[in-house]
Model the fold of this input.
Amino acid sequence: MDIKDIIKPENLVYKKTDHMTDKVLSYCPGCGHGTAHRILMEVIDEMGVRADTIGVAPVGCSVLAYDFMNIDMQGAAHGRAPAVATGIKRCWPDKFVFTYQGDGDLAAIGTAETIHACNRGENITILFINNGIYGMTGGQMAPTTLEGMRTTTSPYGRDLESMGNPIKITELIANLPGVHYVTRQAVHTPRYVRRTKKAIFKAFDIQKNKKGLSFVEIVSNCNSGWKMTPNQSNIWMEDNMFPYYPLGDIKVDGKIINE
Done:
């Protein structure tokens, strides 16, 4: 049988959405960013809102997003993506606007922009990739770095007495009245990829219906920054990150779950 007969459309199990560019991903092998990019673009593709979607990517590993997402993208200064997204959404209220941010960007340099955009209830979607480290700029300690976790600026591990506690920024945001939907997911297995894609669908649907801000955290690995193989980093993430940053919905329809 000729290969052309095998790859007919009816035989395809999966096909990359054309909402992703053909540029080869430059992320470290095993990084969760590529998977997060893909399912985000699949959601936009399946909703048929490509022409009406604008993404905002600030500094950090997320700054590369506009190389791979084949949609309208806008750059932002480090930490300022929610402010830029607010301006875009207020100019074009019928557009789907999202930010794609890392933990150092969102929970440290851009804490004020994040908190105030959420508190105002801007009708946008914030996607937050939490790998507990500054991945692009040298592997420094981030606000989300766990106790005892080694980084280039905490080589002996994060010490709570001198360095403070890891911030559960997602739980803090869930308490703000302007936030309609808050969830924490992951992308390291097919099961969790499906759950995360469902959460992103929900977030965009909430924006479509003008119900307020949605905040989707994706706990991910940084095998390069953590000095591990991709498989080791996923196991470490399950054993260490998930207990401190438990997965699941935190706030749905404006109500905190199990409050």
Remarks:
- Residues 55 and 73 are 5 Å apart (CA to CA).
- The radius of gyration is 18 Å.
- The first helix runs from residue 3 to 6.
